[in-house]
Structure formats: C-alpha cells, structure tokens
Specification:
The structure holds 2 protein chains of 2 kinds. By secondary structure, chain A is of the alpha/beta class. Helices cover 40% and strands 25% of the residues of chain A. Chain A has one domain: STAS domain (Transcription Regulator spoIIAA, 2-Layer Sandwich), CATH 3.30.750. By secondary structure, chain B is α+β, with helices and mostly antiparallel strands. Chain B has a single domain, classed as 2-Layer Sandwich (Heat Shock Protein 90), CATH 3.30.565. Classes of the chains: A alpha/beta, B alpha+beta.
C-alpha cells in the first residue's frame, strides 16, 4: 500500500495514496499502523483525502488502529473524507466512533487542545 | 425501461481483482440511462456490493482447494438489477444482520450488513454443489 508517513510534533500523519482502501490492501495499512504503535507512536491522523472508495475491510483496519491507539492512551483521528467515503462511515455508524476533521491542519491542531 | 443487459464474468479468486469487478459494476450502473435516481451513487453502491460479495467468497473459500475462480453474473432486466455470486466454498450464514450500534468496535462483520442495506433483496442458498449469493436492486 502506498502511504506517506510523517511526524508532526508528537503526532504521526499517515496519508493514504491509494484510490481504494479495501480487502486487497487494508491488512497492509493495519501492519503499518502496528509498526508505528510498536515504536511508541500512539497519536495518529489518517488522511483519507486521496481515497475514493472504502469497503468493510478498510473500515475494519481503521477501527483496529483506533482500538490500538486507545489501548495505549493515544488517539487515532481521521481527516479529508470524500463524500462517498463519509457516507460509509454514516451507514455503519462509525462517524460516531471516530473524531473526523475536514483537513490535516484541523486534525493535528485538535491534539494540542 | 427497455434496457436488457447480461454480463457473465469469471475471475481468479484473488483480492487483486476486487477493483476490476467493482469497476465493471460501476460502469454497468452508469450505463443504465433510464435509471431515475443518482446514477453515480448507484454506481458506487454496486461497486461496493460486488467488492463485499467477492471478498466474502474469498474469505470463505481460502481453506478449500477450489480452482474454479469466481463466477459472477449481472443482469439488468424488468426494472431491476440482479447480481449472482457463485462459490464452491464452505458457505456462510446469512443471518439477520442488525444495524451496528454507534459504539460498535468490531473489526469485521460489516460486509453483509452493507450488502443488505444497499440492496432490496438478498438471499444465499445451495446451488450445484456450492452456493449462490443473490442480490436484487429495484431500479424504479
């Protein structure tokens, strides 16, 4: 899976550079997040700006990341959801689980509040 | 609606082909000119339903030695779209899938819920030594 991973102060920003987040590549994302958790990076923002399509496996990978972050007293927040992707979070009620921001600037800023 | 379209697709049973199958469904939905609703939304939903159905088959056949690949048919006829996904795996329970609660943190189990939410009729039954997942969408 193509991702860009950057450290912004104490927060890790993961930008997904794939049009689809589905059963073909979601386990890669899960693995990349697990590596970051093992390095002690427990606060994350996943930027979904480039993702046009997400299925239940993609949602599952994000839930896995959220649970891992929470278990380590961290947080995983989302930003940049395209309308169709946002509708998937609403359909599955996951928009009530994640903190979702319009863009990375606002998502990163929320960790300072 | 006078359109009548039938597609018969055979694909390797691998997640690398999810995108291709989803795109075929998307293009089919976009081509239904007499659909009165939002065709882009329909296209997205059909892409999603096909992706979920194929991923489900792959999950339930990974421990069987089926070299059959995946067989999918899509039919637009009589004001409805019917999708059939055939598998030779061990099958699964198409039980009543409730709406996930707001705090549901399960990592899996949303695929069938999504299919049942987006399609008007869903059934799963034995067919020719395997199973068929049949999904119907009323177009208008």
């Amino acid at each position: 899976m193509l991702t860009t991973i950057e450290s912004r102060d104490a927060v890790t920003l993961i930008q997904i550079q794939e049009e689809r987040l589905d059963a073909h590549n979601s386990s890669d994302l899960k693995g990349q997040m697990l590596t970051l958790f093992e390095e002690g990076k427990n606060d994350m923002v996943v930027d979904l700006q480039g993702v046009r399509f997400v299925d239940s496996s993609g949602l599952g990978a994000l839930v896995s990341g959220f649970k891992n972050a929470s278990a380590r007293n961290g947080n995983l927040k989302l930003c940049g959801l395209q309308p169709q992707v946002e509708s998937m979070f609403e359909l599955t009620r996951l928009h009530r689980v994640f903190e979702i921001f319009p863009d990375e600037i606002q998502a990163l800023k929320s960790f300072q509040e | 609606m006078s359109e009548s379209i039938f597609l018969d697709i055979k694909l390797p049973n691998e997640t690398g082909y999810l995108r291709l199958l989803g795109k075929i469904g998307e293009y089919l939905a976009q081509s239904i000119e007499s659909y009165p609703g939002d065709r882009e939304e329909l296209a997205y939903h059909i892409n999603l339903v096909l992706t979920e159905a194929m991923a489900n088959v792959i999950r339930h056949t990974e421990d069987t030695k089926s070299g059959e690949g995946l067989h999918v048919t899509l039919r637009v006829e009589n004001r409805k779209l019917t999708i059939k996904v055939y598998d030779q795996g061990r099958g699964f329970e198409l039980c009543d899938t409730p709406e996930p609660p707001p705090s549901c943190l399960a990592e899996g189990g949303r695929g069938i819920f999504i299919i049942k939410t987006l399609m008007d009729r869903v059934s799963y039954h034995k067919y020719d030594g395997g199973h068929v997942l049949e999904m119907e969408k009323i177009l208008f």
